[in-house]
Amino acid sequence: MYKHFIKPLLFTKNPESAHYFTFSWIKKLFNLPILRSVIKSAFAFEHKDLEREVFGLTFKNPIGLAAGFDKDAKLIDEMSMLGFGFIEIGTLTPKPQEGNPKPRLFRLPKDQALINRMGFNNEGVLAAVERLKKRKSGVLVGGNIGKNKTTPNELALDDYLYSLHALHPHVDYFVINVSSPNTPNLRALQEKEPLKQLLQAVKSATDHYPQKRPVLLKIAPDLTNTQLDDIIAIVRETNIDGVIATNTTVVRDGLKTSSNLVQEIGAGGLSGRVLKDRSTEVIRYLTSQSGNAFPVIGVGGIFSVEDVQEKLAAGASLVQIYTGMIYEGPAMVKRLKMGMVGWSDKS
């Protein structure tokens, strides 16, 4: 139904309008008593073979919703009904910010891809906290945090620590986002010394809480092998709990969409099928070069159960989806899980 009716309707709207239109209808329909049980039943599928123990947390299945879809923690209960094993909110910043000027989200249908330059648009971490206090589902939630656009890099740590302390009682793990291409100078924080200092301070802050929260680092797919070697060294030195590989890319190679249209769209992070191979390469490099020293969550270009298995075979412990769901629809989550059990049975 999604591909034949809902997707064509949504694709008549500009991508950001379609996103908020979808949000409003999910909020309405998923909370109607008459539909709630129907929706839960339609998307329900769990199996003991899907359970994972990763960085001290028990995931009922390895399929997560990547950050960016529910930035402000508005739909955790509703999205959990689709069967996700975990949901990542954010990227959240200490202060609310509007993000970059519109238009800032673009579809590339020929490539089943998106380009975004949203710029950490969000209502601020404290607004998200108030919603998290009211959530009813038990799905695991990750808090993806970043710095405000107006915060200079030398003061970035203050922003990360502010959000960490605000979110700590309400999320299950943290993601330090220094890899978005849409906040000026943010990726400079991926350089070895600034990143090491940032992660050491964040890890130290979490260690002061009785209830520990895993700390993960989200990295760009555009890092060189030398930079990935630095990431491995930093993870070991700072003793953080894992890596998310990868964020969106600024590279435009291999696209079917005309170069003129791509140039017209301009700057932004590219996600979708075109990112699949590179994200898998990064996962494989991190796990092989580190000797599987830390867990990796694989994200980028996942559309099928074969894509999931590719990420897991490369060394990922869990995976996340976003762009694939925009093109394939919410039933994708159940399809991936059912396919993984079938694949496991055949292997």
From TrEMBL:
It comes from the Bacteria. Its cofactor is FMN. Pathway: Pyrimidine metabolism; UMP biosynthesis via de novo pathway; orotate from (S)-dihydroorotate (quinone route): step 1/1. Pfam families: DHO_dh (PF01180). InterPro entries: Aldolase_TIM, DHO_dehydrogenase, Dihydroorotate_DH_1_2, Dihydroorotate_DH_2, Dihydroorotate_DH_cat, Dihydroorotate_DH_CS. Binds 1 FMN per subunit. Residues 50-339 form the Dihydroorotate dehydrogenase catalytic domain. It is found in: Cell membrane; Membrane. Its EC number is 1.3.5.2. This is Dihydroorotate dehydrogenase (quinone). It comes from Cyclobacterium plantarum.
